[in-house]
């Protein structure tokens, strides 16, 4: 996965290459979309996106990315008339399950080379999620996360932006949470293990307080005598 900075840099070059394009849809649509995928560090073919693989009552689908995207391309001269092309693009999506046996994609992208409309028709059928010119793409690159298949969580927390979580710093933590009775020992079992010297049992055998312990006895149990250096789980 490319870093945010690498994606933006690639998209700046992409914009410079295509912002003056004034040709037809058919002559360069495939090249345009191939290069757009590559800006996000993925190959269109490797992602499984294919050109013109399905027909609907409104024509041929320009590009289909399984379960993710239907892309409808228009010539640059149609940039000011994209609103008039919405119906056909959205009809591809609405008719998808009746003309194919595949899962309906989540997004629809209507693009005139110089402008983008991104739709999520199932969740937001009345208006596009976003609508912006090609020149803004480097700053709006997150609008096309479906191209490389990046989830919302990955988009919000990319590897190159990883940070230590500080929200709970200085606050009480939950501490250990035994996930099954097999992790619970009786006092006698615990003392028996702590008396052994063949391994560092005090590192893993430690007393802890459950919610019932705290609620039932405000004084809370005393662990003195349990072992020479009492160990209590974090947060107890």
Describe the model.
It is elongated and about 80 Å long. 18% of the residues are buried. Strands 1-4-5-6-7-8 form a six-stranded mixed β-sheet. With 236 residues, the protein is of the alpha+beta class. Mean pLDDT is 81; it is low at 223-236. Strand 6 and strand 7 form a beta hairpin. The protein is built from seven helices and eight strands.
Compute the number of helices.
7
Measure the end-to-end span: 41 Å
Computed structural class: alpha+beta
What is the helical fraction, as a range of percent? 25-40%
Strand arrangement in the largest pleated sheet: 1-4-5-6-7-8
Number of DSSP E strands: 8
Mean pLDDT level = 81
Based on Cα principal axes, name the global outline. Answer: elongated
Radius of gyration, in Å, reads 29 Å
Model regions low in confidence, pLDDT < 50 over at least 5 residues: 223-236
Q: Which percent range describes the beta-strand content?
A: 5-15%
Q: What does the largest sheet look like?
A: 6 strands, mixed
H-E string? HHEEEEEHHEEEHHH
Quick description:
By secondary structure, this protein is an alpha+beta fold. The protein has seven helices and eight strands; from the N terminus they run H-H-E-E-E-E-E-H-H-E-E-E-H-H-H.
Give the tags.
single chain, 236 residues, 7 helices
Question: Helices, strands, pairings?
Answer:
Blueprint: H1 4-18, H2 25-39, E1 50-51, E2 55-56, E3 59-60, E4 63-65, E5 69-73, H3 82-94, H4 96-99, E6 107-111, E7 115-119, E8 130-133, H5 152-156, H6 187-194, H7 211-216
Parallel strand pairs: 5-6
Antiparallel strand pairs: 1-4, 2-3, 4-5, 6-7, 7-8
């Amino acid at each position: 996965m490319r870093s945010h900075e690498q994606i933006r840099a690639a998209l700046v070059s992409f914009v410079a290459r295509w912002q003056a394009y004034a040709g037809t849809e058919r002559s360069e649509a495939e090249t345009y979309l191939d290069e757009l995928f590559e800006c996000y560090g993925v190959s269109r073919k490797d992602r499984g996106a294919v050109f013109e693989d399905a027909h609907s009552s409104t024509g041929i689908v320009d590009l289909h990315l399984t379960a993710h995207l239907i892309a409808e391309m228009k010539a640059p001269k149609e940039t000011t008339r994209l609103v008039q092309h919405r119906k056909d693009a959205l009809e591809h999506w609405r008719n998808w399950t009746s003309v194919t046996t595949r899962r309906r994609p989540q997004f629809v992208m209507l693009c005139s080379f110089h402008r983008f409309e991104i739709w999520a028709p199932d969740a937001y059928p009345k208006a596009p999620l976003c609508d912006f010119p090609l020149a803004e793409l480097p700053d709006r690159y997150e609008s096309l996360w479906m191209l490389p298949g990046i989830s919302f969580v990955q988009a919000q927390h990319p590897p190159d932006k990883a940070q230590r979580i500080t929200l709970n710093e200085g606050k009480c933590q939950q501490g250990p949470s035994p996930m099954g009775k097999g992790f619970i020992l009786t006092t006698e079992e615990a003392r028996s293990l702590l008396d052994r010297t063949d391994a560092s049992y005090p590192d893993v055998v430690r007393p802890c307080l459950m919610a019932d312990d705290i609620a039932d006895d405000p004084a809370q149990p005393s662990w003195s005598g349990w072992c020479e250096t009492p160990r209590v789980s974090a947060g107890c």
